[in-house]
Amino acid sequence: GDSVTQMEGPVTLSEEAFLTINCTYTATGYPSLFWYVQYPGEGLQLLLKATKADDKGSNKGFEATYRKETTSFHLEKGSVQVSDSAVYFCALRSGYNKLIFGAGTRLAVHP
Amino acid sequence: DVKVTQSSRYLVKRTGEKVFLECVQDMDHENMFWYRQDPGLGLRLIYFSYDVKMKEKGDIPEGYSVSREKKERFSLILESASTNQTSMYLCASSPSGQENSPLHFGNGTRLTVT
Questions:
Q1: B21-46 pLDDT tens trace
Q2: Residues of B at the A interface (Cβ-Cβ below 8 Å)?
């Protein structure tokens, strides 16, 4: 069945460091791909999305490119801030209604 | 802004109790979902509903049931709570007819079963 695999955390970085969180997927067809973020004490919120191959989603300085050839959707940010500390989830839409999530990657950014 | 409200932030129940988790959304969304979130496992879909009185099993429906009597409200029911149902429960909603629309999540209910 469809699945999402993302790198285990926690990822610990200093402020202004470069961030990459890896995400790969297995799916039939051409799923839409998403990154959600969960700040402490809150529910998940959409960070960015891409709906077809080679699309780049971007928001708040974060970017991810839908790579069909490597079945990947890695999340990147050039310069992280303390306020980016959160848990990040990669997800794909499987079928009309269903989102399948990865296990989540916790990011901790220190001043 | 879409608001998804879960009635309890924290809940402590005893083994064998019947537990109701309530979720209300204010954007007239057709689709509603219940996920549980566990460390290292991410979010797993328990049940979802695409219309009033309609429901579909997700990936882990065992031990749970749901109720959708009104469009804005989706309840998750633990018929007889067990310790392995201690978890964070997240409700979400989305409109139908928009395949790539995001899910809007509530802030979660952390349930502890003792």
A1: 999 999 999 999 999 999 888 899 99
A2: 4, 31, 33, 35, 40-45, 48, 50, 56, 58, 90, 92, 94, 99-100, 102-103, 105-108
